[in-house]
Request: fold
Amino acid sequence: FRKKQIPEEELVGKILAGNKTALGRAITLVESHQQDHLERAQKVIEACLPHAQRSVRIGITGVPGVGKSTFIEAFGTYLVSKGKKVAVLAVDPSSSVTHGSIMGDKTRMEKLVTMENAFIRPSPSGDSLGGVAQKTRESIVLCEAAGFDVLLIETVGVGQSETTVHSMTDFFLLLKLAGAGDELQGIKRGIIEMADLIVINKADGENQKAARDARLEFKRALNLYPPRESRWQPQVLLSSAINHQGIPEVWEEIMNYLELVQANGFFEANRHEQNKFWMLQTINEHLKKSFYQHPEIKKELQVQLKAIEQKKTSPFAAAKHLIKLWNEV
Ligand code: GDP
Reply:
């Protein structure tokens, strides 16, 4: 059984009209591993590009259990109530194994999923973070063409996925929990440097004092960093996502940020930098894929790996040999 193919032009027309079913279908093409689907996807993306609306792309990260899904439910429904069209995407490189370890739990976005002006899409599965990220980048274009003006891009604090999401968003929000007084230990330094806003979630019940303490501690830590290129001074706020508390304040902070960086030119400059970065990334991904998937390379790679194991060659000689072969095939 095969679904009837919709011509690309028809799909594009529906996306531009804001049709969520068409948007979902186009993203499915983007995420496909089939060559003909990918070619169709490229046509759709190209047609959509000039129509991508003005939007703000917000990255949201935090360890599992911090309350990302709950926060997105509260934040997303708030934004929709303010007249925004909200799309939620995710970058989760582990999802090919675990089948969507984040946002699998739609029950926490119960209300948002039913809203006309919200669109939620779990992470594409792929073999590499690069592959997953590229698909999300393309989905961003499609969502913007469909008129979604706030994009929430969720990721887990695993490996490089935060850096990846940071490089495709305008604003980066880090969700934290108040801990046992050692909040700043074990937190990757780079993440603090990327965060435009830290929100201490679960600031409710018995947690309130600890949350206020954590807030001070993070504020102090943030003051130790040199001024940013954006000239933005990141703040630390408290939220109770489950009670929908602290949510309007987060949006207000994002609006303040946008006002600053749109006036000083950083917003545009940053998006230009991101576009250049993503072009290079796409080339890297493509080269990597065509290298490793080439049948001759695949075969010879095994031979060389064996040779390294048997100490018959050095890693560098083996690499050189394979690259030389690549230039010849
Ligand atoms: P995620 O793994 O980061 O997406 O976290 P979830 O949104 O799934 O939340 C993990 C757990 O924390 C769930 O049991 C939520 O009900 C709970 N939770 C989320 N936000 C809050 C909050 O603001 N206060 C409290 N007390 N619990 C929360």
Remarks:
- The chain has three domains: 1-51, 52-265, 294-328.
- The two ends are 38 Å apart (CA to CA).
- Residues 62, 64-70, 105, 108, 201-202, 204, 240-242 surround guanosine-5'-diphosphate (CB under 6 Å).
- The beta strands are 56-62, 86-91, 118-120, 150-156, 171-177, 197-201, 235-238.
